[in-house]
């Protein structure tokens, strides 16, 4: 069928582009300037493609899963904007990215829609006992990840934030990223 061959061509093209990006990243893109450009704007473009793809999928009849795909689209758009702002500072302006910056706002706004989207996709328990089991499982996994992360990295980060006499915003940012990653997992 015509739509099947178009879909296959799109997948092959996407595979070639991803393969090319991976090879370029593995070999450093040939120069540090190109590597920084592709690291910032290449990731922004990839996230934008993901956002558009998720949005189009949601529009074409994802049924009860439509809200999840719209949330994934929003999440990917936040990642695209964060990488674009980061690239603007790093590549266009040629200055170090300030902390906190608008890029941090976008990066921190990436996780919440993704988390809610994953919850929308999850199979819902049908009994009260099922909900209790789900809550206990989530608590156990989240607590384990938090304990592991705290012992390996977060305690060190919190200690450094206190020692370096940083303001509240950079200290909160340095803890927010790994904590949102834990919740996302």
Account of the protein in words:
By secondary structure, this protein is mainly α. It folds into two domains: 31-122; 126-185, no CATH class. Helices cover 82% and strands 0% of the residues. The chain has seven helices and no strands. It has helices at residues 2-26, 32-59, 66-93, 102-108, 111-121, 128-163, 168-184. The radius of gyration is 20 Å and the shape is flat. The protein starts with a helix and ends with a helix. The model has no long low-confidence stretch (mean pLDDT 83).
Output the number of helix runs: 7
**Beta fraction:** under 5%
Order of helices and strands: HHHHHHH
The average pLDDT is: 83
Distance between the termini: 39 Å
- The global form is flat
Poorly predicted spans: none
SSE topology sketch:
Elements: H1 2-26, H2 32-59, H3 66-93, H4 102-108, H5 111-121, H6 128-163, H7 168-184
Helix pairs in contact: 2-3, 3-4, 3-5, 5-7, 6-7
Keywords:
single chain; about 180 residues; 2 domains; 7 helices; about 0% strand; flat
Task: Summarize it.
The protein is an all-alpha fold. Helices cover 82% and strands 0% of the residues.
